[in-house]
Structure formats: C-alpha cells, structure tokens
Amino acid sequence: MSVVTVEIAGQRYPIRSGLDERYVAELAAYVDQKMRAAVNAAPESDMLGLAILVALNIADDVFRARQQQSSVHGELNERALQLEQLLDAALAQVAIPQVVSAP
Q1: What is the dihedral of CA 91, 94, 98, 99, to 10 degrees?
Q2: CA distance 45 to 62
Q3: Residue 32 near residue 41, CB atoms below 8 Å
Q4: Residue 8: in which H helix or E strand, if any?
Q5: Is 45 helix (H, G, I), strand (E, B) or coil?
C-alpha cells in the first residue's frame, strides 16, 4: 500500500491505496476535470454542493456505461442465437449418408 498525493479543485489530498499510482492519479485527474466543469456550471455553489453534483455526474457515467455494456452483451447473445439457428438450418439440409448393412 502506498500514499499518492493528488490535487483536486486546488486542494491536495494524500490517498492511501494498493492501486497503481498512475491509475490513482488518472482517477484524480478525472474527478478534478468533473469538479472544474461543476464550478463552471454552478460557480456560486459551495464545495460540498459541487462534490454532490460531481458524484451524481460520475454515478450517471457509471450507470450509462453499465447500460451500454448490458445492451452490447444482449446484442451479442442475440447474434449468437441467430448464428446457432442458421447453423442448425444448414446442418438440417446436409444429407447424412445412411449406412446400409448387407444381409
């Protein structure tokens, strides 16, 4: 576990984490970007209000990504089912030679 110091909205925060330091820095940069956008959208808000707006925005990002992933997964399942049906139909048309026993 290491400590990574990041800056978000002009404040420095020591973050203790077992994650890769570059990844933590990337996460912090993402949150900082969202905070700056929130400040631009609602400059009169206090930091707690901005943090709540950012949390809601990030939660929206997560929910949309989950929905998109679920949609893609559903489309792949549908395509796999269609391919299975096509394969079954093709195999049904193939004549399987019958083995005939001589008396």
Answers
A1: -80
A2: 24
A3: no
A4: strand 2-8
A5: coil
Give SS3 for 88: helix
pTM for the full predicted model: 0.67
Scan for tokens 């940069």, then name that residue.
29
The rounded distance, in Å, linking the Cα atoms of 3 and 8 is 16
**C-alpha pair distances (Å), 14 with each of 1, 5, 23, 28, 94:** 13, 4, 14, 11, 68
Closest CA to 9 of 36, 43, 45, 37: 36
Summarised one tens digit per residue, pLDDT across range 9-19 is 999 999 999 99
